[in-house]
Amino acid sequence: MKSKDTFSKKDILQAVELKQFEVYYQPIINKEKNTILSGEALVRWNHPKLGLLHPNSFITTAEKTGSIIQLGYFVLRESCIQSKKWKDEGYAFFKVTVNLSLVQLIDRGFSKKVAHVLAESGLDPHDLELEITESMALDDPESTRKTLLELKELGVRIIIDDFGAGFANLSHLRQFPVDGLKIDGQFIQESLKSERDTKIMHSIILLARALDIDIVAEGVETEEQLALLKKMECQVVQGFYFTHALPGKEYKEWCNYFVNNPALRV
Ligand code: C2E
Ligand code: CA
Ligand code: CA
């Protein structure tokens, strides 16, 4: 049998065609108000032979081979349609946050594709947030900036993912029109062990506040981490402490439970 990380472009494109990919959602929570701000769309592959696959076993291949363009489009379309459905059903937790690869962002006409998906799904652009996950160095910051401005003009929010890790750095804040930052989970996980990491995390929170942009802390796993974030006045959080990413139907049930049981809220 083929090993998990040796997929080809054809394997991924075929799986998109065969609808083997499924969008899971993880809530982004405002802990101060106990509300769900959005659901982050995280793709899974229901592989007929290998079972449920997480993105770390296929996203890199998808990016390298360019098939992330089709896969990413599927995730965007699917999650916008789902979000509009939840909105129409009257749920307050309907908003959606979609991960975007730079490969998609530098694809010509990307903002037109987003506009098309929004028109097709009927979702209000303000209900969609795009997280830029930068796994490689940026070749052409000017054209990326132009595309991001087009997306902002549509009304979509732009978030820098994994801030403080890899290529997600300060220069993006200077160059790009961003609405928020997501602090990399590693800082949160290390913050109770290392004073240095705590200080870096606190500085990122203060930086976001000074720039008047939103901040989300991801990868929150424990009560202690949550308490530390509260002390730093970072109350928008996401992580296993609340729940793993869930399939649409279970996500809806989880959110309903969270919203309707104030006394039981984690
Ligand atoms: P990410 O965007 O940084 O997403 C967060 C990852 O951390 C997710 O892994 C999530 O399940 C996991 N996570 C959530 N809470 C916790 C926690 O408390 N502790 C720990 N240790 N992990 C937590 P997942 O779903 O396996 O996704 C991995 C990465 O794959 C994502 O990282 C994102 O970069 C990428 N990805 C996922 N879906 C898509 C997609 O549709 N398009 C693109 N371009 N990338 C995607
Ligand atoms: Ca993300
Ligand atoms: Ca992240």
List the helices and strands and how they pair.
Layout (H helix, E strand, L loop, with lengths): L8 H9 L3 E10 L4 E13 L3 E3 L5 H7 L2 H21 L7 E6 H4 L4 H12 L6 E6 L7 H14 L2 E7 L6 H6 L4 E4 L1 H6 L4 H16 L3 E4 L5 H9 L4 E2 L8 E2 H13 L6
Bound molecules: ligand C2E and calcium ion (CA) (2 copies).
Structure explained in plain terms:
The chain has 266 residues and is an alpha/beta fold. It has one domain (9-256): Alpha-Beta Barrel (TIM Barrel). Helix content is 44%, strand content 21%. The chain contains eleven helices and ten strands. It has helices at 9-17, 59-65, 68-88, 102-105, 110-121, 141-154, 170-175, 185-190, 195-210, 223-231, 248-260, and strands spanning 21-30, 35-47, 51-53, 96-101, 128-133, 157-163, 180-183, 214-217, 236-237, 246-247. Strands 1, 2, 3, 4, 5, 6, 7, 8, 9 and 10 form a ten-stranded mixed β-sheet that branches. A hairpin with a 4-residue loop joins strand 1 and strand 2. Helix 3 runs parallel beside helix 5 and helix 5 packs parallel to helix 6 (141-154). The chain is globular, with a radius of gyration of 18 Å. The structure holds ligand C2E and calcium ion (2 copies). One calcium ion binds next to strand 5. One calcium ion binds at residues 40, 99, 131, 133, 161.
Gross morphology:
globular
Order of helices and strands: HEEEHHEHHEHEHEHHEHEEH
Q: Structural class of the helix and strand makeup?
A: alpha/beta
Q: Biggest sheet: strands, sense, closure?
A: 10 strands, mixed
Q: Could you report the average pLDDT, rounded to the nearest whole number?
A: 92
CATH uppermost class: Alpha Beta
Write down the domain tally.
Answer: 1
